[in-house]
Amino acid sequence: MTVGIVLVSHSPAVAGSVAELAGELAGPSVTIRPAGGTDDGRFGTSIELIAAAVAAADSGDGVCVLMDMGSSVLTSKTLIEDLEDDGGGPVVRLADAPFTEGAVAAAVLASTGQDLDAVVGTAEQAWSMRKL
Amino acid sequence: MAFDTATATAWITAAEAAVKADEARLTGLDAAIGDGDHGANMARGLSAALTNIAEKAPTTPGDVLVSAGRGIVAKTGGASGPLYGSAFRRAGKALGDAASVEAPELGAALEAALTAIKELGGANEGDKTMIDALAPAVAAFQAIAADGGPIAMAAAAAADAAEQGLAATIPLQARKGRASYLGPRSVGHEDPGAASTTLILRALAEVTA
After folding, report:
1. Do B41 and A81 touch (CB under 8 A)?
2. CB distance from B122 to chain A under 8 Å?
3. In whole angstroms, what is the distance from residue A69 CA to residue A19 CA?
4. Which residues are paired to A125 by β-bridges?
5. Contacts of residue B73 in chain A, CB cutoff 8 Å?
6. Average pLDDT over residues B39-66
7. Chain A contact for B120, CB < 8 A?
8. The predicted structure's pLDDT at residue B91
9. B23-33 helix and B5-21 helix, angle to the nearest 10 degrees
10. Other CB atoms within 10 Å distance of the CB of residue B112
11. CA distances from A49 to A40, A79, B118, B191, B201 (A)
12. Residue range A33-83, pLDDT digits in tens
């Protein structure tokens, strides 16, 4: 079992770089897909990019989505509603987590074959990992 | 007049024109306390709504609003995309497959839109958001509809109430979105989301007058 990870940021570069960082720390077994910016490359959020990233990240074991803020969160929530309305899509959970730290935590745990609940839970626990 | 497919389409068309005409003002409001893209985002979103309506050729007013909402969600690019998109889709679903509705049904659809925005964004009245224009507008619309008033009268009252709600956002401190980071410095400006909501409701009043 390997849960997929999707990273939603207003910035294509932030989403891509955090995906690269988390992938480096988690290893090649986890699929991490960035969904940054709008569909024409501006800062913002695109429900179509997020949906495509979710589809690409899912291997049948579900997808954990992390968002930076604002429209990233609202657009991801809207996608979840759409998937529930349509039915039959991948199992997707949003993690209420700090973006970079949560992505690394989720990716590392996903690489050990834990299920979606555990991956989302670990991402959310990243809030309590003090640095100083 | 009843609210049918043609009226619903005329509403979105008028809303798009109003937002385009006021794009610079909306962006200016957003530049003061937000990220300065609200005018462009709303213009792009409502333009996508019209494109989607043209492609889907909906045959009920409910389907018109659902099609508009899907276009807005897909192309707006900012937080107003999922908020307005969910609002129009939820309003459209509330209308069901009726070919034409009267004021009470349209009032219930507007209330469904308000509920969608509250649920998705987690904001309430007084947070300096679009809800500060929409909530009093829905209440005004429904009060007239409950008295048996026609859509034209209810929509005009809703637009007036939205304008008052918009003006009342000036002294408020933002509690949602980018503006909330500014704390007390968000006071003294109209909320751009409340401004675009007012334009959209004025467009409804104009096409139903």
Report:
1. no
2. no
3. 17
4. none
5. 47, 75, 78
6. 97
7. yes
8. 98
9. 60
10. 20
11. 10, 11, 25, 29, 31
12. 999 999 999 999 999 999 999 999 999 999 999 999 999 999 999 999 989
Residues 33-92 (A) with a CB less than 8 A from some CB of B? 38-39, 42, 44-48, 70-71, 74-75, 77-78, 81
DSSP B92-156: HHHHTT-SEE-HHHHHHHHHHHHHHHHHHH---TTSSSTHHHHHHHHHHHHHHHHTT--HHHHHH
What average pLDDT does chain A have? 96
Q: Chain B: nearest CA to A76, how far in angstroms? A: 9
The domain A4-128: what is its CATH number? 3.40.50.510
- Evaluate if residue A120 carries a pLDDT over 90: yes
Cβ contacts of B121 on chain A, cutoff 8 Å: 74
Chain A, nearest residue to B122 by Cα: A74
* pLDDT reported for residue A85: 84
Interface contacts A/B by beta carbons within 8 Å = 44
Count H helices, E strands: chain B? Answer: 9, 2
pLDDT band for position A86 (cuts 50, 70, 90): confident
Residues of A assigned a catalytic role:
10
Which domain CATH number covers B111?
1.25.40.340
Judge whether B186 and B128 are in contact, CB under 8 Å: yes
SS3 state of residue A8: strand
The range of the structural domain enclosing residue B148 comes to 3-208
Does position B178 have pLDDT exceeding 90, yes or no?
no
Structural domains of chain B, count? 1
Pairing verdict, β B3-4 and B100-101: antiparallel
Are B161 and B180 in contact by the 8 Å Cβ rule? The answer is: no
What is the structure's pLDDT at A89?
A: 85
Residues 28-47 of B with CB under 8 A from A: 37, 41
